[in-house]
Amino acid sequence: xxxxxxxxPTFQDLILRLQSFWAERGCVVEQxxxxxxxxxxxxxxxxxxxxxxxxxxxxxVQPSRRPADGRYGENPNRLFKHMQLQVILKPPPADxxxxxxxxLAAIGIDLRQHDIKFEEDNWESPTxxxxxxxxxxxxxxxxxxxxxxxxxxGGVDLDPISAELTYGLERLGAFLQDVDSVYDxxxxxxxxxxxxxxxVRLADELQFSVYNFEFADVEKAWxxxxxxxxxxxxxxxxxxxxxxKPEAGDGRTAGEKKRFPxxxxxxxxxxCSHLFxxxxxxxxxxxxxxxxxxxxxxxxxxxxxxxxxxxxGEVAGEELKNKLRVTIxxxxxxx
Amino acid sequence: MPDLLLEIGCEEIPARMIDAGISxxxxxxxxxxxxxxxxxxxxxxxxxxxxxxxxxxxxxxxxPDITEAVSGPSVKVAYQDGQPTAAAHAFAKKVGVDISRLGxxxxxxxxxxxxxxxxxxxRAAEILxxxxxxxxxxxxxxxxxxxxTPGEVFVRPVRWLVAMLGEEVIPLEFDxxxxxxxxxxxxxxxxxxxxIPAAGSAYVEALRQAKVLGREAREHEIRRQLDAATRExxxxxxxxxxxxxxxxxxxxxxxxxxxxxxxxxFLALAEEVLVTVMRDxxxxxxxxxxxxxxxxxxxxxxxxxxxxSGIIRHGHERVLRARFNDARFFWETDxxxxxxxxxxxxxxxxxxxxxxxxxDKSLRVQRLASWLSEIVRQSGRPIRPGVVHKAAxxxxxxxxxxxxxxxxxxxxxxxxxxxxxxxxxxELPETTRLAIAxxxxxxxxxxxxxxxxxxxxxxxxxxxxxxxxxxxxxxALGLVPSGSKDPFALRRQANAVVRxxxxxxxxxxxAQLFADARQSYDGSAGEEKFxxxxxxxxxxxxxxRERLDFYxxxxxxxxxxxxxxVLAAGADDVxxxxxxxxxxxxxxxSSDFESISIAFKRMKNILRQxxxxxxxxxxxxxxxxxxxxxxxxxxGLIPLAAEKVEAFRNEHNxxxxxxxxxxxxxxxxxxxxxxxxxxxDERVRANRLALLAMLLKEFSTIADFSEIVTExxxx
Lengths: 335, 715
Description:
The complex is a heterodimer of chains A (about 325) and B (about 725).
Chain A: H1 11-24, E1 28-29, H2 44-47, E2 56-65, E3 81-90, H3 96-106, E4 116-120, E5 124-125, E6 130-139, E7 142-153, E8 156-157, E9 163-168, H4 169-177, E10 186-190, E11 193-196, H5 197-215, H6 218-244, H7 252-258, H8 262-281, H9 287-326
Parallel strand pairs in A: 1-2
Antiparallel strand pairs in A: 2-3, 3-9, 4-6, 5-6, 6-7, 7-8, 7-9, 10-11
Helix pairs in contact in A: 6-8, 6-9, 7-9, 8-9
Chain B: E1 4-10, H1 15-35, E2 42-48, E3 51-57, E4 66-74, H2 75-78, E5 79-80, E6 83-84, H3 86-95, E7 103-107, E8 110-119, H4 124-137, E9 158-165, E10 168-169, E11 173-174, E12 177-180, E13 182-183, E14 194-195, H5 201-209, H6 215-230, E15 237-238, H7 242-249, E16 256-261, H8 271-282, E17 284-288, E18 294-302, H9 311-334, H10 339-345, E19 350-352, E20 356-357, H11 358-378, H12 387-394, H13 402-406, H14 413-422, H15 430-442, H16 457-476, H17 490-503, H18 510-519, H19 533-555, H20 560-568, H21 574-587, H22 591-612, H23 629-650, H24 654-662, H25 665-674, H26 682-699
C-alpha cells in the first residue's frame, strides 16, 4: 500500500471538515437516510425539500446503493455502495460557486496549485421525474462534484430553485491521499495504526455483490416490488380523495391533509426503486420491460411530489408563503 | 465619439454554446445600433466561459436630429367648404405646426395633409439602457435555465453586468442584476473585482491584467504551449484536433498546457480506445512519434498558470491510469464471449420498442445487404463473396460489450477490432476475414457530410443496408422527422444513404430500396402499427427529395434552380440525378439554353392559364389543324429531336441530349413570334395547346427547364 502524505486528511476527516464547513454556513447537518437509495438526491431531504416555497439548507452524507455497479470488491474504482456528501441550498446564494470552491479549500486543496474547470453536465433522473442544469467539477482532470441547479422534481417546476452539490467522497479521498484504489484510502488513524476503507467496507462490497448478482430471489423481489407499489398507490389514492373533498369551513380537511403520511408513501416508493435496481442487477428485466418499470416508479414519485406540494400549501399557509418569498435574497452586484 | 462595452458575466457557459451565443449577441447589438441611428465604426467580441462581451467602436453620443415627413388626413376630410375640420386641427396639434403652415402631398390615393416634423435625437446611453436588455434576452440558447426563481432566464446564472459608453455606466438591468463598471478576473488567478476604466481597448487591457484572455489569444497561447510541451519528447508531434482545440479554448480564461505520460504497456490496447479515452473523456491531445504512431504521452490544457510543482500533472496521470485500466479490464472481459455468441445476446437489446431487438435488425440488415450486393455484382462490380453477409450478421454484436457500454462512441469500431482480434471463421481466407472486420468497423460511416466514407464497397453496402432498415422501420411507424424534431437522427442517416449511393455510383432506385427494406418487416410484431403502404412510399419519396436537394446544393455546390429543375424530372435514381445535374450546370451557360428555359416557362404559364380558365387541351396533336408555317415546322421537328434526345438519354449522355433540346430554340422562338396560341377558334386553340403540352412532356425528362432562373425572367 502507498503511504499517503501524512498531512492529508483521513476519510472521516474529509467528511467532518465538509460537514462543519456547511454547518458554519447555516446548513442543517442531517444524518444519512435509513432506506436504500441510489443517490443522495433520492433522500427525502432533497427530493421533498426542494419542492414548495420553503427555504432550506441541508448537508448530509448519503451512502448510495447501485447494485448493478457492484464488482465484488475487485475493481479499485467501482463500488456497489459509494458515499456522497449532498448539499442543498434553497434558494442558492449568488456566490454559490465561490462557496463551493471555499469548501474545497477547507478540505486541504490549495486551489492555486490545481486546475479547476466547470464542464457542462446536466443531471437527469427519469425515475424521479427530476432534472437540472449544471456542471461536473473537474479537479486536475478528475470529476469530484456534480453541481446542479434543479429545475424540476417529481415533474413539478421548482420555485424557488435549489442548488445541489454532490461530492464524490471516495474520489476526493483517493485524490487527497493519492492512492489508486478506494480500498487503500485511510478511513481513520489512531496513533500509528490506520484503518482503511477496505478494512471497513470490503466485506460489504463482496457480499452484496454476491447477493445482488447471484442470490437475490427474482420472484420474491418482484413480489416485494408489487406489494410496496400497491401500498404506496393506496396511500396516494386516499390523499387524492382528500384533495377532492370540499372544505366544510371547519378546517377539518386541512387538518387531515396535514397529518396524512405522505412521507411514508415516499419511503414505499424508494423501496420500489431499490427493488427495481436489484432486479436489474439480476438481469431479470428485459430492455423492453425496463422502460415500463421505470415509468411505474416515476408515476409514484410524481404523484407524491404533487401531493407533497399540496400538503406544503396547508402546512405553510398563504401568509407564511408570502413572507418567505420576500426573504429570498436578490443577486448582489460585487461591491 | 465614445466606445460601447457590454459584458454579460455568467457562471461557466457550456463550451459548445459560446460561439453561437456571442455571434448572436454581436449581430443583435449591430442591428440595434443601426436601427437606433447609432451606427458604430466597428464591432468586436470578447468571449470566455464566464463572459460574453461586445465592443462597439465610435458610437455617437446622441442620435442625429432628423426631420421626418408625416402625413395626416386627406384634404377632402381636412377641409369642408374651405374651412379646416376637427381632423385638420387634431393633426396640426399632433405635429405642432400651425394649420396654415401644413403642407400637402399627393399619393396614388389622393391628396393628403403633411408636415415636416423635427425629431430631436436622444442620448445613446438612455436608448441603450432601455434596449440592450431585450437583445440579451432574445439570444437563442439550446437550453436555458432558472437559478433563483422563474422569470429570470439565461443559459447560466448571470452574476454581473458591465455596460459602458466611454467612461460612463449605462443604466440597465437584466435578470435582477444592475450594470456597473466592475468586471471580474480569472476565478483563481485574477482579482475578484476588476475596475474597467472605460469601454474600448482599456477593457481588454484590464482583463489581461486580471488573467483573462480573449478567444484568439487563448487559441494562440494553447497552440504555442502544446508545441513547447511536445518538444520535451524528441521527434514527437501532438495530433491536430480542431474540435478538441475549440473545446479547450472555450473551457479556459487563461490557458496553459502540460505534458503527461502513461505506462508504455497500455500501448498494447487498440489506439482507437486510447485516443477516445484521452480525447472524449479527458479532453487530452494525443501525441505521436516521428513515425505517426501513438506515443505514451498526452497533453492536458489547464485553466491556470502552469504547473511548477508537478502536482497537476500527477493528478491527470492518475486519472488517465484509472481510465486505461478500466478500458483494459473491459477489453479482457469482453473476450470471454465471442462476437458470434453475442449475436444471441442481441435478442435482449431493443432496437426500437415496436421494431424488435437488435437481433431482429441484424437478420433484416443481413437480408437487405445481401440483396444489395447481388445488384452490385450483377452490374459487374467486383465484390468479395460472403463479406457483406457475414459482416451484417456480426455488425451489431458489439452493443453488448462492456467497452461499447462505457464508450458508446466506439460502436462499430469495437466490433471491427474484436472481429480482427478474435480471428473468427478460420476457414475463410485471411483477406476475407480482414474485409469482414473492416466492413463492421466502418458501418456507421459516414456520420456527417465531412466524415470519411467506409473504406470498402462491402462496408458501404453494409452501412447503406443498416441505415435503410432504420429509416424504413421508423417511417413505417410514422416516426418521420419534422422541424427540429429528429430524435433518431434519420436526416443524418438519409444523408449518408444519398452520399453512399452517389459516391459509390450504385445502380439503385430509392423507391425499390425502401420497398425492399420495408418488406423485411413483414410478419414482425410491430407491423400492425405500420402506416399504409401508399403513405410510406410517398413520405419516403418526399423526405429523400429534400435530402437530395441538400446533398446537391451543400455537398456538390449545384445552383438551387438547377437542382430544382433536375429533381422535378425525377429523384429516384441518385446517380442519374447527379449526372443530370452536372449536365444542366455545364449546358446552362449557352444562350440557347437560356432562351429555351424562358420558352418552357412561357409554355407552362400558357398551359396553366388554359387550365385555370377551363380551356380544353386536345388529347392528341392534329396535324391537319396546323395552319401557320412556324407551328408546322415546330411540330415536324419534335419527333426527330425527341428520338435523338431519347437515344442520348438512354446512354445517360445528358450534355448532348440538352444540346439537342437547345437546338429547338429557333423553331420555338419563331412559333411564339408568329403564332397566337389563345385564338378564338376553339379547335385550333386546343390543338396549339396540345402542341405545347407535347413539347413540355417530351423534353422535360432530364430537367424541368421552367425551374431555371434566367436573368431575363420577367420579360
